[in-house]
What does this fold into?
Amino acid sequence: MQTKRIFSSIVLIVLAMAYQLSAAQLAEAITRRLAATPGDQAILQELKASIGQITDVDARMRYMVIYALGCLYTGDNQEAGTVMHFIQSRHATHPMAQYIGIDYIGAPCTQCKGAGHLVADCAACNKSGTCRHCNGEGNRQQEAIGGVTDRREKIGNQWVTVSRGDAPTHRTVPCGPCRRSGKCSTCNGEGTVKTNCQSCHGQGKIFNREIAEGTYRALLHGAQPQLPEWEKDAE
Ligand SMILES: [Zn+2]
Ligand SMILES: [Zn+2]
Ligand SMILES: [Zn+2]
It folds into this structure.
């Protein structure tokens, strides 16, 4: 009885292994056909259907990334976006995930030269970097409360008027806007301000079809994707 039970579980394991192997093998066979005709949407649909049967994460990631890039290749950006979002939300750290990331399939933004932000002169300080409220002193003069007024003082038992004409009419107070630093609070003394680049939404890179297609073709052929020469120079 015991032997029979062990035997049947071994059969189950072997069956599961064979089944798993065939699921990944099926996906690989579909991928080889896709390599010959990368834009074939019917084969892409076959690939999509086969992915659900694969339980091995590494294998599933490979075919999901190929499928996502295939969707981009055929112009189905919506489906590509859905798959890419799924991969990035569940398997962002998997090595295969880089091939659908903007860092990889993006080219440096020409608007901001890859910085993700634009630099402009600070209008608040006319690019001087100094606080306009205190001219960079850190303190500023404030009119003394009461100003120039004479006051009555009792000397002995007699009230006399004491002139305050020579009393200071202004007093030195710490500059609030710059918190005594003397630096322009808008640009923190830099004289320039950074604004988020609208072209690349601060990412510094813009999706590049050439790189995405090159990556797709390389993965279809089981090769290590290579970045274009101009992209390598930039790194
Ligand atoms: Zn400024
Ligand atoms: Zn100031
Ligand atoms: Zn940009």
In short: The chain has two domains: 19-114+205-234, 119-142+172-196.
